[in-house]
Design a protein that fits this description.
This protein has 249 residues and is of the alpha/beta class. Helices cover 41% and strands 16% of the residues. The protein has a seven-stranded parallel sheet, with helices on both faces. The structure holds nicotinamide-adenine-dinucleotide.
Length: 249
């Protein structure tokens, strides 16, 4: 797989879960990684760990829903960016009939508007730097099918899939590729307990491969989309889900 030496990669929501894993993985493949999230304490520790292992990393404070924070972060990064992993996201599960408008808006603001705000600023910087780049939006299989109690989340991720295609169309002229990664259910610290419950086990039984994904299952697909190995791919949505989307109806 492609070596990312010499490339600079921004990963949003890099303080935990998949974002932290993605940042470490991209650094292992040679990228200078900018780990961004709202709380910089965890980011500083993660950046130090990467540097101790011989990688290149820095921590950056960024709230994807806050214009001032976005403007400051992109001023710090300047035109260095080659790769963006638009990973920050929230879920706030609730029965649709009970969900507050405030919570609905929070999910859309983070998962959809946040993805656009980061992608637009990154594209402007890449255009100014005149070197193109790769933007990978982390969507979900819930952007392609639905489940109970995640109406806002599923709507936001479906919109990210469509946004990815629209941005790919407009930004190909600048040499900027925009693709989406659609993971199925991936085991991370925040959902591990749920998957030991009867409901969680029943969910795993509906996945054709009868197992959850691991963060490592996403490594090669993400690396593909980030690197020049996918130089003729843009506007695509890559599903990595153990066959969950093709489970029998
Ligand atoms: P997580 O909660 O562990 O990580 C989310 C990260 O986003 C955290 O670091 C959080 O601080 C950050 N974040 C939230 N709001 C933010 C904001 N306003 N500004 C900046 N950062 C913010 O969850 P995760 O499971 O690691 O999910 C990461 C991404 O992958 C999300 O977009 C999620 O929707 C997607 N995803 C996860 C799974 C899964 O099974 N874990 C499956 C499909 C898609």
């Amino acid at each position: 797989m492609q070596d990312l030496t010499g490339k600079t990669a921004l990963v949003t929501g890099a303080s935990s879960g998949l974002g932290l894993h993605f940042a470490e993985m991209l650094a292992q493949h040679g990228a200078h990684v900018i780990l961004a999230a709202r709380q910089t304490d965890a980011l500083d520790d993660a950046a130090k760990r990467i540097i101790t292992k011989g990688g290149k990393a820095e921590a950056l404070s960024l709230d994807v829903t806050d214009s001032a924070s976005l403007d400051h972060a992109f001023a710090v990064m300047g035109t260095r960016l080659d790769i963006v992993v638009n990973n920050a996201g929230i879920s706030l599960p609730s029965a649709a009939i009970d969900m507050t408008e405030t919570d609905f808006s929070r999910v859309i603001d983070t998962n959809l508007t946040g993805v656009f705000s980061v992608a637009q600023r990154a594209a402007r910087a890449m255009r100014e730097g005149n070197k193109g780049g790769s933007i990978v939006n982390i969507a979900s299989i819930l952007g392609l099918r639905v489940a109970g109690h995640v109406a806002a989340y599923a709507a936001s991720k479906a919109a990210v899939v469509q946004l990815t295609k629209a941005l790919a169309l407009e930004w190909a002229r600048y040499g900027i590729r925009v693709n989406a990664l659609c993971p199925g259910y991936i085991e991370t610290p925040i959902n591990r307990d749920f998957f030991t419950t009867d409901q969680g086990k029943a969910l795993i039984n509906r996945i054709p491969q009868r197992r959850l994904g691991t963060p490592e299952d996403l490594d090669t697909p993400l690396l593909l989309l980030c690197s020049d190995a996918s130089s003729y791919m843009t506007g695509s949505s890559l599903v990595v889900d153990g066959g969950h989307l093709v489970s029998s109806l």
